[in-house]
Amino acid sequence: MSGTLRLVVALGLLVLVAAAVGRAAGVRQERDVLVVTARAVVQIGVVGLVLGLVLRTPVLAPAYLLLALGAASWTAARRLRPLRAWPVTAAAIGAGAGTASAVVVGVGALPLHVLQVLPFTAQLIGGSMTAATLAGRRMLDEVDGGWDAVEGWLALGATPHQAVTGAGRLAAARALVPALDQTRTVGIVTLPGAFVGLLLGGASPLEAARVQLLVLVGLLAAETIAAVVTTRGIGRRLRTRPVCAGG
Question: Is this model's pTM higher than 0.85 or not?
């Protein structure tokens, strides 16, 4: 059996397991499992072709990262409806990924080469998107659930931004729990993807560990910035109770 055929069989069995367990538990996510898996196969194939082109033509790297930023911002903003949050999520994700990437490249921890900078920055964009989504959703839920307290602050003369500041801080802190837990348990509970990928690619364990540390702590910095910028941006835009916001 060829490697490609083994991959197809493994993917098919994994999809069947996910769908069967979900169906047995009444989760009703069989269709979603099939759709997202099919999308993942197509998207990974397209990304592989695009990255191959970008790596051969480094001048295209900024365009690729801008496209990734746009897609991440739009995806996060969809979860924050009915608030028009795309400018907020774009600023948050861009600030998080851009700052962390600039620090790592600026001190020379990664060489200024598209082969290193592109995947590193793309991973930071993905992590920042998750943090922005979590922080934004949790802030809207906190404000909605605690609207009486918000109205109380407003009655005392606070500005709308001041009235929701506490909810924003709590939402940002909760949104960072996954990143903190991942960093706290690295090497003990999980072996992260970058580490495993480098080992499979033939890198030494020490080299793999060095890159993985850059990714983990870079993600922690990027996601912290993204969560804070998101909650503060939402705080400045909220004017009414965010009932039934996004989903």
Answer: no
